[in-house]
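Question thread 4412

I'm putting together a teaching handout and wanted feedback from people who do this every day. The idea is simple: show students a protein as raw sequence, then show them the structure tokens that encode its fold, then repeat with a second protein so they can compare. Below is the first pair exactly as I plan to print it.
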Amino acid sequence: MPPQPEQYEYLEHTADAKFRAYGKTLEEVFENAALAMFNVMIDTKKVLVETSLEVSLKSPGLDTLLIDWLSELLFLFEVEETIFGEFRVEEIREEEGEYSLKARALGDKWNLEIHPFETEIKAVTYNQLELEKTPGGWVAQVVVDL
């Protein structure tokens, strides 16, 4: 991986949103993928950290865990009406062929006046999904359905 000062970048896609996230660690690439996804919907720099929600997940594979993580955050946004601007993935482990994640999503109650909606994400997809370890860390590529 070439030196990447950015946490993520958006890539060309005909109908949906596609991004590539970077991280020195697996946990960091999961955090940056979440940040990239939420920046599709709102400006995360305007999100105040007023609340924190705990997220614990288990999945049969790392790529599935990434999709589950992003999907869970989207679900929490829709159900809890909480917009997130910071993510802290505390741990990703593999045990007996299953991967688990423990994390916190930090944000605030969604207020349309403060956080105007830019784009609605319907779902996180497996389309063109990539998650790979590189000499410089980790890279994830994700497409979200708009």
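The second pair follows. I'd like the answer to focus on this one:
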Amino acid sequence: MRYALFDIEVTHPMSDLPLSLEDAGIAVLVRRKGVPIGFWMQEMNGARHVPAAELARKIGAEAGEKVVAEALREELVPAPSAASLPLVTIAICTKDRPESVERLLLSLTTQAIAIPERGAGLEILIVDNAPSDERTRKLAEQRSEVRYVREPRPGLNFARNRALREARGEILAFLDDDVIADRHWSAGLASAWADNGDAAAFTGQVLPMELATEAQILFEKRGGFRRGFHRVRYGPVLAGNSLYPGGAGIFGAGANMAFRAEVLRRIGGFDEALDNPAVPGGGDLDIFYRIIRAGYALVYEPRFLVFHQHRREMEALRVQYRRSWGVGFMCYVGKSLSSDRERRVNLFRLIVWWFVHEVTTLLSHMKKRVLGKPHIPPSMVLGELWGGVVGLLGGYSRSQRRVEEVRKRFS
């Protein structure tokens, strides 16, 4: 079971999309002159191709308004080049995945990489987090544009803070090692920066690299990491959202984010009690929340695009829902409850909303299962729900104690 992925440029002539016997469906990214403007998934029910006329109708329905908006923007607003950015340090925090890092580095060769000493450009920094071997170091040594450091303390946020200490760039971008950067990634960041020079943080679109397994298709059907194709600037308040900014998942994903390095340092960097081996999540949500609460703007820019390799196995996806999206999320919320007294009522409402949403989702998919309709396995939703309970009931304080032990061990 797989979905065929297509990358369609609307300014080029349309042609039929061929499908193989293994393709249960399609996933289509639509662009206009390289700018991503839409994405959809569709089951094909045994069809062996998608006629060009049907494809054109679907694009019109899914992305027609964005096509017009991009055409107007092109006429009215000159597009900045990557050269208009200050020096950007791209941090790749990794552990024992040199093949994935190499794939990401290859994707970055299409960006505007300049020698850091000359000012503007991209500096690539690999932070090897408690590695078990030397493979990543050896890979970095083969690339002249890459700087390598080792962070012995295990945990993603330990690695992110090491990157913050090492970064030379005015902008510090973080890319997970299981993504590849779109060829217009740096141009997307440059566009957001040019229009929002006062913003402290930027997040981008994250689309699937492949949809080759049931787990990957299921994850993307549930929404994946997608956040839409319109730029959004977030500030102190968000009209109509009483949970803001507590529901920090709206801002984007940690797989693809960038910050003014000086602002990150000013607010104390990343919380090392989140995004670590015991609590593998919440670190990105926490930093987004703190950026907003400190009075800074955060900008979501869909042209700032990467492709993510979703977990291929169902068991790995269950663990992600339970630990990263359940335990990690509620550890972040629990931490915010104790540290941000002004927002306690807001955060309590978020907790109630989250549990009601999870229970409603569980019951909905249990009903769909009984009726034989497509559904998310109830065990996955139940695992996420249980993870939330574990995280809320002292998960953050337990993680703080473990992190203190790690610090002592490496001091």
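Top answer:
Good format. For the second protein you could add a caption like this: The radius of gyration is 21 Å. The first strand starts at residue 2 and ends at 9.
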